[in-house]
Amino acid sequence: MDSRSHTHVTAALRLCLHALLAGLLALVVVRAVSEDAADTAAVVAVTLLTAALYAAGAVRSSAVQPKGSVQPKGSERLKDPARPRTSVQPGTPAGAWWLGGLWVLWAALLVLSPDALWVAFPLYFLQLHFLPMRWALPAVVVTAAAAITSFVVHRQEIEPGAFIGPLIGAAVAVATVLGYDALFRESERRRELIVELVATRADLAEAERTAGTLAERERLAREIHDTLAQGLSSIQLLLRAAERSLPENAPATPHVRAAREAAQANLAEARSFVRALTPPDLEHGSLAAALERLCARTTAPELTVRFAVSGTPVELPTPYEVALLRTAQSALANTVRHAAARRAEITLSFMDTSVALDVVDDGRGFDPSGAPVHERGTGGDGGFGLPAMRARAGSLGGALSVESAPGQGTAVALTLPLPDTEAERAA
Predict the structure, then answer these.
(1) Per DSSP, what are the bridge partners of residue 411?
(2) Which residues pair with 354 in a beta bridge?
(3) 417, 397 contact by CB (below 8 A)
(4) Quick one: which of 46, 157, 243, 349 could link to 356 by a disulfide (CB 3.0–4.6 Å)?
């Protein structure tokens, strides 16, 4: 239910309250005139004054009430600095004085006519609406006591109905107002939750688009590095060898030199393209800083993401940093989209011979051996999945392990051997 629905319901309840009060005041006048009592003129005069005061307050309240707005409740009405303090509105001094004047005129009408006690019922609603709850409940009790006293004084007898009627009316009014307030607060919480879910869905869609863009940039960087750059580097080396084997004054030497310089220039251009296509997070700091930023900007309802570094950080080649960052992005994206986790931790560990990345969450978990591929984000939605992470790890001589079980969370660990270790083994 949106605010417009609340406005329509509030307007309908306000009209019903106007009609109820007008009808009860008319009943008092009709009964006084039909019984031809001695104080009929006084009853009619006080009734008209009550109706006039109520109408003036109702008109002024409607005049300052913004179209489509919903009345605040309780202390929120008193804390609203934008609300005119001189208007007949809930929580304003003018509203309290107006309600007090109505109550005084009603009390005078109670003295003159026993039929005026029925006006207590709409007064209950006015008090609950215009006064904070800590003041409204005592006012309702005083109003019910006044109605009971009026009945006993005029009838000169004590009957159960004299107590039951006003008390039941007061209880119904309090229950109605409290119930409506509870429904209003619940609908507001639901509306805020829907807004949050819509924003989260938009963030996830933007994250998926960004992930797809970054994946394509990385793929192009790998292709350029593995094909064009390597080919141009080989051409440059071959031309350099050919240039050295030619005599100094050979006619082909200038052409070979020009070809080598052109290959060298194009190799530099290709490498600049590769650098431009690397993940932008790695262009503004270290891998640890990029992972920390990833944790900070990862948002999901009730999810807390933490990052830690273990060991002494060492400088890593760009392919290593890209693989570690992409694996963290993939695993964390799966946590956000599928795990329904409350806590996730990313740990980057530097060891003597290897570097490791661990992504652990306390989500719903899954069966790594039996889960369908699309359940972990490896389907055709453009996401990064476990096969892509394993392929990335294998291309650098590393290994990817996944530990998970239904209801026991998930742990993804990527281990890569340090480049110096590989060089020592090759030697």
Answers:
(1) 360, 403
(2) 417
(3) yes
(4) 349
